[in-house]
Structures are given as structure tokens and as C-alpha cells.
Design a protein that fits this description.
Structural class: mainly alpha
Radius of gyration: 20 Å
Shape: elongated
Helix content: over 70%
Largest sheet: none
Strand content: under 5%
Distance between the termini: 52 Å
Length: about 190
């Protein structure tokens, strides 16, 4: 039963990969939802440290922050779906092996500002290169085109519609928080 053991190991490896990809995403977006949907049990202890006269103003700040976080999560989700669909379609047309999985991966890593599209694109190019160098060239061109569509159309549209954040503010926030806090600052800049 060597083949059965190998298949079991492969399924275990696939489950581990899915855990590594999805559990942090679920925790990240769950944490954002908790922050974006403040309730009295969460805010009351926090507001006790604020002087009594400023509590209403701070409560309103948390409400506005929550609205923006929900908008950011919706906009990011829309960008993730858009990139995932475009990547899957392009990779299927090119004939890259595991095109659907690679397209989903490209969509998942889209939430990582600046680096996510590069990680997804380079992964697809590498897989395509292992199959056929010519497919790798077409995959690289498709990845660059999708990245331009994402950066110039999908994300600005999604963020302006959902988070009501101007693209300049987004770019400024990424640069400022990235320089101050590194990679974590880039992730949380918006």
C-alpha cells in the first residue's frame, strides 16, 4: 500500500497548505470585523480611560473607523475576487498547469499591499516555466497586465466606492506606515 500512503501524505500536505493560507486570512478578516463593528461591551472599557467630556467624540471616531474598515474589507475583497478571476481566466487560456489553483492563490495574496501581486505572478510564472518556457513568457505578460489593471482600475474603483478613500491617501499611507513600521505597517496602512 505504498500508493495509499503517498496519497495520504499528499492530502495531509494539501491540508497543511490550506491551513497556512486560510487560517491567517480568517483571523485577519475576523479581527478587522471585530474592530469595524464596535459594540458597547468592547468600547465601554476602552472609553473609561478617556475624560468624560471627550467620550462621545471618541465613540464617534471608533464608529467612523469601523465604517472605513468595513469599506476597506469590502474593497479588498472585490479586488481579490477580480484578480483571482482575471488570473484564472488568463492562466486557463495560456494553458498553465493548475490554472484554477494559481488563480485562486493570486486572488488570495492580493490583500498584501505591493508584494502580493508580485508573489502571485512570480509563482504562476515559475509553474508555467516548469511546463514550457514560452508559457512562462505569456504568463509574465499576463501577470503584468493584470497587475496594471488591478492597480489602476480595480483597487481605486473598489476603494473609492466602498472605503471612500482617495487613491492619493492610500499611496501616502502605504509609504508613511511602511517606512515607520515596516511590513506590518504596509499591511495595516489603509
Amino acid at each position: 500500500f505504498q500508493g495509499g500512503s503517498s496519497g495520504g501524505n499528499m492530502m495531509g500536505s494539501a491540508a497543511t497548505v490550506l491551513e497556512v493560507l486560510f487560517v491567517p486570512l480568517i483571523l485577519f478578516f475576523g479581527g478587522l470585523f471585530a474592530l469595524a463593528n464596535p459594540n458597547e461591551r468592547l468600547l465601554t472599557p476602552m472609553l473609561r480611560v478617556v475624560p468624560h467630556g471627550l467620550r462621545l467624540a471618541w465613540y464617534r471616531i471608533f464608529q467612523l473607523l469601523g465604517e472605513r474598515l468595513i469599506g476597506w474589507a469590502k474593497g479588498t475583497g472585490m479586488a481579490m475576487v477580480g484578480v483571482g478571476l482575471l488570473s484564472t481566466a488568463a492562466l486557463l487560456i495560456i494553458g498553465v498547469p493548475n490554472a484554477i489553483a494559481l488563480g485562486m492563490f493570486n486572488g488570495l495574496v492580493e490583500f498584501i499591499p505591493l508584494f502580493g501581486p508580485w508573489v502571485g505572478g512570480l509563482t504562476a510564472v515559475l509553474i508555467a516555466f516548469l511546463d514550457d518556457p514560452q508559457k512562462a513568457l505569456f504568463t509574465a505578460i499576463a501577470a503584468l497586465a493584470i497587475q496594471q489593471i488591478e492597480a489602476n482600475l480595480i483597487t481605486p474603483w473598489a476603494m473609492s466606492r466602498n472605503a471612500e478613500v482617495h487613491p492619493f491617501v492610500t499611496l501616502f499611507g502605504l509609504v508613511l506606515f511602511g517606512s515607520l513600521f515596516g511590513f506590518l505597517g504596509i499591511l495595516l496602512a489603509i
